[in-house]
Structure formats: C-alpha cells, structure tokens
Amino acid sequence: MLNVLIIDDEEKIRSLLARIISLEGFTVYQAENCASGLKKLQQQAIDVVLCDVKLPDGNGVAFTQTIKEKHPATEVILLTAYGTIPDGVQAMKNGAFDYIVKGDDNNKIIPLLHRATEKATLARRVQHLEKQLGDKHSFEKIIGSSKAIKQAIELAKRVGQADTTVLLTGETGSGKEVFAQAIHQAGPRANRPFVAINCSAFSRELLENEMFGHKAGAFTGALRDQKGLFEEAHTGTIFLDEIGEMSTELQAKLLRVLETGEFIRVGDTKPTKVNVRVIAATHRDLASEIESGHFREDLYYRISTFQIHLPPLRERIADIEPLARHFIGVYAARTNKKIKQISPEFIEALKTHSWKGNIRELKNVIERSLIICDDELLPQHLPAEFHRPERGDEKTFSAFELGSAENLHIRKVLNYTNGNKTKTAELLGIALTTLYRKLAEYKIE
Q1: What angle do CA 334, 340, 342 make, to 5 degrees?
Q2: Which pLDDT value is given to residue 36?
Q3: How many angstroms separate the CA atoms of 50 and 41, rounded?
Q4: I need a labelling partner for 374 at 20 to 30 A (CA). Which of 103, 271, 390, 423 fits?
Q5: Percent of residues in the chain assigned helix, strand, coil, to nearest 5
Q6: Domains detected in the chain
Q7: pTM of the shown model
Q8: Residue 103 — pLDDT band, cuts 50, 70, 90?
Q9: Residue 308 near residue 166 (C-beta atoms within 8 A)
Q10: Cβ atoms within 10 A of the Cβ of 400, count?
Q11: What are phi and psi for residue 139, nearest 5 degrees?
Q12: Across the strands, what pairs with 52?
C-alpha cells in the first residue's frame, strides 16, 4: 500500500484530506509542522508528501528542498491558499512534483497523487536496482583471504573515497576491472555512470572517436554529432583498461583531459568540458615503456597518483579453492546442473596449476569442467594441459606424491612472506641454497 503524508497546521484541512485520500486506498499520515513532518519521514517510507506552503516553523517551498535532499525518492505536492508565480517556479526548482491552490484545485489532488506515487514507486525501484548493483560490485564481493589480495583490497578501500586517479597494475585476467568497479562504488560518484573501455581493442583513430566522440561531417559517414565515452561518463568514472596500448598521440590528448577537464571532439573546434574520475589499468611495465619511448612520462606521473598492484593467481594459492567453489556455484546455477561432490584431487590439481591466465583462466576451466562432468568434479574433467608437463617442466607430480605436497607448501610459504626467499627459508627450516634448489626443481619463480 502507498503512503501519503499530509503536513498542514490546520487540523480540519488535514482531517478532510486524510478522509478523501484514504478512500482511494492510500495509507495516510499527518503532521502539523516541518519538524513533526521530518520525524514522520524518518519513521515511515512515505511515497508522497502533501505540504502546505505556510507552516508555523517554516516555508513549504524551502522545506521541499530539505525533503528531497534527505528522501530523494519521495515526491512533494505543495498546497497554498494564495499561489504566486515566483513561489511556483521556486517550488519546482526545489524538486516539487506540483504546486496547486487549495480549494480551487481539490478535484486535481487524487489524479495528481496517483501520478506522483507512480513516479515515487519508479524512483524506489531505481534505488533498489542501484543498491543491488552496488552490492554486486562492492569490495565484500571480492573473493580471497590471502595476504596479497587483502593488501590490495585495503589500499583500494582507502583510495575509493579520495576521488583521485588510480592506476591498477597486474597480469591479464587478475581482476583489474572488478577492482575498478569496487573503487567507483565505494566513492562519492557511486550513483553516477561507470564506463569502461579496452584501449587495446581499437586502432588509434577509432579509439579517439570512442573516447571523445565527433562532430557531424568530421569524416565520411559522420552524419550527426556523437558523444564519446568521456561525455557518457560525465560526473562518474571512466575505466581505461590496457592504457599501455594507447598511442603516444592519443596519450597527449588524454593528458589534456586530466589536466584541464577539456577535450576536443573529432572534427570540432570548441573544447568540451567534463568532470570524470579516471581509473587506468595495464599489464605492462610502464617504466620500461617510458624508456623505450612508447609511453609518455608526464602522463605516467599523472595517472599513477595512486598505484595498486593486483597479484597473479599463482601467488594467491589460498584463494584458489574459494574462487573455484564460487565459480562452480555460478555455472552450476546457469546450467541447472547439480554437483554432489568435488573431489580433493580436483581441488589439488587446481592449486598446483601455474594459472598464466589468472582468474579469467580459472573461470573458463571451471565452466568447461562443469559441461563435461555428471555430478562429481574429478581431475579427468580438467583440460588437457592439466595432464601433461608444462613447456620446460622436467617433472610433474600427482596430487598424492610427496613432491606435490612439498611444491604446494613452498608456494604457500612464499605467498605468506610476499616472495621473501630468506624469510621463506627460515620458516621452512632449510638453508637458502636448498630453497633455491627446490625452486628450480619445481619451476617456482
């Protein structure tokens, strides 16, 4: 049932309106001033407020702005004994749904209420969807308890509220876009657009057009003006994935956007202003790219205000099983397949794999395995590369061999020490030379 709040200091008018409106099936609440009206709004989910303009403790026109700031999905209809054009204009500017005169327009109230509640209901649905989207892309949805991923999440949470430029580094498939979305969702632009573009997917000319748009007549086939993704992301966030693949000419144009908030569309002469947060990502070593002349040093310092490195999956062994179980649940639901059991050997094989494609590769492996299994996931359901030595490997182990356990344990301790081999040798109780021999034997980098 839809809720209506009547705010008026005249009890007779409140009671009359309440009776009329309740007969239409609405639940009606009453308040005699701004203060009690705000209290009701905090206590109940109100769809529409019918508010008098002149109240003992405030003006309804100004009060509308307060209501909309605190309860943006609630619609406000203002009632006045003496309507004026300036008041009406200001009321609409402050977010009022409508502004009507008491008595003369009583016959308009019910149809107006129905239209206002339709808009309020739609606004609440949008809020609900935005919340679901926010929950989907929150840091809490990032799976992993390893030290390496926890450090990355902690840094990302800190920069989320800062509204500054962020550079995410890490191998392909390590989850950079997931982190970008979580950073956006944790920041002040959470309810604004998030736009992503892969810079490696376009030629220089096409990428410029995608990013900045064009004017009609800029080139053959440009029949009308077209916005670029920077304009689409205005007031929100743009995620520039694989920024290391961008041409140096386009890098100069991007630098101007970052420094001035302006760019020029293809074929235009006038600059366009935008207000966006930039999150960039790359799998390349940009310092090396600068030395080779493939990346601008000034742009690097501009985008790397805050860097976060995402660890590869092989350095997150503790996270492989929970990630795998998550993807098993996702793909089992999609295919209506019931998995009764996941064999320990299946999980062990996942843990000892090198995962050159990182989380993306793990997702693909799980999806494939689910397609060919019946109701239990076994090692034989894994792709062929799990059953043969990787290129350059001299030795492989089954899940039950001592070498497999030793290999896995060394990797876990290395992960715990963040790759510190001296500390790893100390924790393992072996000489550093022995550790290096083991690393070479098991092809651990």
Answers
A1: 95
A2: 94
A3: 12
A4: 390
A5: 50, 15, 35
A6: 3-133 (3.40.50.2300), 143-311 (3.40.50.300), 315-386 (1.10.8.60), 389-445 (1.10.10.60)
A7: 0.62
A8: low
A9: yes
A10: 10
A11: -65, -30
A12: 79
Identify the DSSP state of 55: E
- Rounded to 5 degrees, φ, ψ at 48 are -135, 140
Distances (CA, A) of 136 to 62, 141, 142, 267: 37, 7, 9, 39
Q: How many residues does the chain have?
A: 445
Please, are residues 199 and 245 in contact by the beta-carbon 8 Å criterion? Answer: yes
Contacts of 18 (CB under 8 A, 6+ apart): 6, 28, 30
Residues 6+ apart with CB under 8 A from 299: 251, 252, 254, 255, 258
Q: Which residue has the tokens 């926010």?
A: 134
pLDDT band for position 137 (50/70/90)?
A: low
Pairing of strands 277-282, 306-309: unpaired
- Orientation angle between helical segments 317-335 and 344-352, nearest 10 degrees: 120
Residue whose structure tokens are 């892969």: 198
Neighbours of 444 (CB within 10 A): 14
CA-to-CA dists, residue 319 to 157, 293, 366, angstroms: 20, 38, 15
Q: Please name the residue that has the structure tokens 């007031």.
A: 235
The amino acid present at 442, given as its one-letter code, is Y
Look at the block and give the residue holding tokens 């660890």. Answer: 311
How far is CA 327 from each of CA 330, 356, 365, rounded to the nearest angstrom? 5, 18, 10
Using CA atoms, how far apart are residues 296 and 302, in angstroms rounded to an integer? 10
**Which uninterrupted H or E stretch holds 94?**
none
